[in-house]
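User: I'm putting together notes for a lab meeting next week and I want to include a structural view of one of the chains we've been expressing. I don't have a solved structure, so I'd like a prediction I can at least talk through. The sequence is below, exactly as it appears in our construct file.
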Amino acid sequence: MSYATTEITSAEIASDNPVHQRLYFPYEEVSKSLKGNVLELGCGWGRGVEKLIASCDHYTGLDKNAELIAALQKQYPDSTFQTASFPDLSRFEDNTFDFVVTFQVIEHVQDDHKFLEEAHRVLKPGGKIILTTVNKKFSLSRNPWHVREYFTKELKTLMEKYFKTVDTLGVNGNDKVWDYYEKNKISVQNMMKWDVLDLQHKLPSWILRIPYEYMNRKNRNKLSGGQDELAASIDWKDYFVCLEPEESLDFYFIGTK
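Assistant: Thanks for the context. Below is the predicted structure for the 257-residue chain, given as structure tokens.
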């Protein structure tokens, strides 16, 4: 299935490429250590599903989009795909999964405490959750699709309430990635100059979603247009796990039950 919104981020739209590669990277990284029974919270359109399925004994993917889930179940009949509304995982018994992976999801969930509590409950003793989310330090504007974003200490403190140990890592990038980020930053700042009343932080999120989508797409098209091949040249291999989460674009946290 194909999705064209800037929040979901397509693998097929050229202007989405830098973000798509950034979101795909954790699937490559986590596949190195997966085994056993794996649950993904928020599998989306299946960006890295194939990679996870190949790395474990059984894969279960959850997402709220019924059409999407049906398409994934048809594509991967030996795995399990179900619709879900997070943070509810009551369909699963305690101590069921060896790994829970959840990439760029917790920022969309109203009750983040319950989200982590449920992930902890369904993990086996010694099981791990591997979680990514945006680093608020590097957000360029308010994202109306996000309930909240975190700084390093906030997310670490939250996860430590539910997991015995928490490894705090980040997803960072090479010079190409940061060059794109800086160009994006300048472009977004130029757009934000028109928001003299700071409406992005005053209006309800549902009002902001349509203009946010329009401006975000316009900006990405601008950055990938003309003779500038930077956006097209970025690959998942341009990202890496970093030991300094505060200086990373995204957090890559591992919690152990």
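A couple of points you could mention at the meeting. DSSP finds eight helices and eight strands in the chain. The chain has one domain: 14-256.

User: Perfect, that's what I needed.
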